[in-house]
Amino acid sequence: MHPILEGIELVAFDLDGTLIDSVPDMAIAVDAALTELGLPAVGRARVRDWVGNGSLVLMERALRFTAQVNEGDPGAPPAGPLPDGLLERAHAAFLAHYARAPGAHTRLYPGVRECLDGLRDRDLPLALVTNKPEAFISPLLDDLGLADYFSLCLGGDSLAEKKPHPAPLLHVAAHFAVSPSACLMVGDSRHDIAAGKAAGFRTLAVPYGYNHGEPVRDSDPDSVVESLAELV
Ligand SMILES: O=C(O)COP(=O)(O)O
Ligand SMILES: [Mg+2]
Questions:
Q1: What's the ipTM?
Q2: How many angstroms does the Cα of residue 78 sit away from the middle of ligand 1?
Q3: Which one of 110, 122, 151, 163 is most buried, by most CB atoms within 10 A?
Q4: How many CA atoms are closer than 13 Å to the CA of 156, on its beta-carbon side?
């Protein structure tokens, strides 16, 4: 057992970039939404750096990027409001495209199932706290065979606040009546580590996911593992 689990009574996992490599399907949906609006596609590598604050912010980043491309000045700061209604239309288009097949090209990272099995064998309650819209959680967990592991799942729109706000993590701790100091947050991005610290959780990072192109170690998690299998 990894030393970070000492005294831990509840583990909360991030989803995108931690348990599942979901950017291939998100990028397909982003590009389909942009194309529908007559805008240029952006591709998987860029989408990878924009994931982390939920689908609305993802589409806002994509729109601001394409606006810069259209103006022919990729170095220009993303200034000013977007045209009226554009973000709402782009977001609705993204949700519709993503809903068609959110798990088609999405895969579990190595070590995830061993980790979840090992924690379940120890009778640790497991929760999922993602910034992804809640509607996509069940279809993805079903597709990937993860549906039975989590006693509570929260999406980015489940509560009034999302990560890096501590509210979703505090909600999970309260739901299971576990003190935050006996909870562990596992994630791939600075938003997970910031939320975990603000909630008083212990924090564990994985370095292989999405963190806006920055090393997640910069957020000073309590520990880092290359594979979640190391936890158990
Ligand atoms: O969808 C996102 O923006 C991020 O999702 P995550 O919180 O599961 O990493
Ligand atoms: Mg993540």
A1: 0.98
A2: 22
A3: 163
A4: 20
